[in-house]
């Protein structure tokens, strides 16, 4: 899409309302041996969590048969609510894409602090495409996944 920005690094001087960050040091890894859609992948990941009441950072690198992401345009003051901003979202669909999914798992017991479950973003290997992950299908039968 013309005039749509590529992913960029956040400068330290910028302020963001919501941000989850971690220095990622995986303490668990596993390989998937079959193609999975997004729902199957989340169900598989649930079986790999040591405790469903913990918080986890997850990274999955590999080839994906399909990746669907969304992004919203840069916002200006006065900033809209998240629901209003999402009304302007643009959806991107990629096929045969190599890249990385990164995400956070939040337990049900933390529902007052955020939305429980998995929240993933995707970025292509060449760092030119990505966004909030809406759907995906894994490509090659095996790719590494890790969590901390």
Task: Describe, in plain words, how this protein is organized in 3D.
The protein is built from two helices and six strands; from the N terminus they run βαβαββββ. The chain has helices at 38-48, 82-86, and strands spanning 28-31, 56-71, 90-106, 117-124, 130-138, 144-147. The mean pLDDT is 83. Strands 1, 2, 3, 4, 5 and 6 form a six-stranded antiparallel beta sheet that branches. Helix content is 11%, strand content 39%. The radius of gyration is 16 Å and the shape is globular. It is mainly β.
Q: What's the SSE blueprint?
A:
Layout: E1 28-31, H1 38-48, E2 56-71, H2 82-86, E3 90-106, E4 117-124, E5 130-138, E6 144-147
Antiparallel strand pairs: 1-6, 2-3, 2-5, 2-6, 3-4, 4-5
Q: What does this entry show, briefly?
A:
By secondary structure, the protein is mostly beta strands. The chain has helices at residues 38-48, 82-86, and strands spanning 28-31, 56-71, 90-106, 117-124, 130-138, 144-147.
Head-to-tail CA distance between termini: 35 Å
Total of helices: 2
Q: How much β-strand is present in the residues?
A: 35-45%
Question: Structural class of the helices, strands and pairings?
Answer: mainly beta
The counted number of beta strands is 6
- Rounded to an integer in angstroms, the radius of gyration calculated over CA atoms is 16 Å
Name the helix and strand elements from N-terminus to C-terminus, one letter apiece: EHEHEEEE
Query: Could you estimate the helical fraction of the residues in percent?
Result: 10-25%
- Described by the principal axes of the CA atoms, the overall outline is globular
Q: What is the mean pLDDT?
A: 83
How does the major sheet shape up?
6 strands, antiparallel
């Amino acid at each position: 899409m013309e005039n749509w920005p590529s992913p960029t690094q956040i400068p330290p001087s910028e302020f963001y309302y919501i941000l989850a960050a971690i220095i990622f040091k995986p303490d668990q890894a596993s390989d998937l041996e079959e193609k999975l859609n997004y729902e199957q992948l989340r169900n598989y990941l649930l079986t790999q969590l040591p405790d469903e009441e913990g918080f986890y950072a997850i990274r999955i690198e590999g080839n994906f048969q399909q990746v669907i992401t969304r992004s919203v345009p840069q916002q200006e003051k006065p900033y809209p609510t998240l629901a209003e901003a999402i009304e302007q979202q643009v959806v991107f669909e990629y096929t045969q894409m190599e890249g990385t999914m990164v995400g956070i798992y939040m337990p049900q017991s933390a529902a007052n602090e955020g939305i429980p479950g998995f929240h993933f973003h995707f970025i292509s290997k060449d760092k030119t495409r990505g966004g909030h992950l809406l759907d995906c299908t894994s490509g090659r039968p095996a790719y590494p996944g890790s969590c901390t």
